[in-house]
Prior knowledge:
Elements (H helix, E strand, L loop, with lengths): L2 H21 L8 E3 L4 E3 L6 E3 L1 H31 L19 H7 L2 H10 L2 H11 L4 H24 L4 H27 L2 H14 L1
Helix pairs in contact: 4-8, 5-8, 6-7
Amino acid sequence: MNKATGVFLAIALGLGVNAHRIYGADLRQAPSQDVRSGTFNYPGTGSQNQSPNISDAAAKDLEELRRVQNQKQQTYQGLNQVNPLSADFGNAPSDGQPVLPEAFRKLMENRIFRGLMQLSLDRNFQKNLLAVADHPSRSTLLIFEVMWIIFMLFFRIWRLGKCDLWYEKLWCGTWTMMLMIFGTSIVLPYIVIGDPYMKVVSAILEVIV
């Protein structure tokens, strides 16, 4: 080996040592990327390069996911508050939970409305209601009710024509109207349909009264 070759090797070795000291790693290694955090890690250098596009997009996606989950949770809680079968039925919402609309909340505080909702979930009431709705004599009942109403209108006009004083007319109009309503809603349905109708009516009256 001649003197020139030795000098060249010494210079190359010195450059390699300096490069290793400067970068502190093998320059052939590629930087690794942390996708979740949006950063690039360079081996041996301890330096990171932040990728603002990836980081912002991931943060926005995570925020949107949390918002959708919160909306779903609030929807479930609101439904439980109005579901008579739920343990949260009628309970006042706690902090962070959805608040029912004011009109609907006042409606839920009504005793009759809550009673009717619970009654609609009763198996016996549903059975009797279906028996009334599917009764084969529904059309017959409708014909009888129309005939009864027409008869009572003419009867009422005839009775009012015989009244001279105003309080007589008031009394006659009241009792004939009550008779027409009673016959249409109670007597005729009981004669045509029977017990299922009366059970439905009595259950509704128990809730109202």
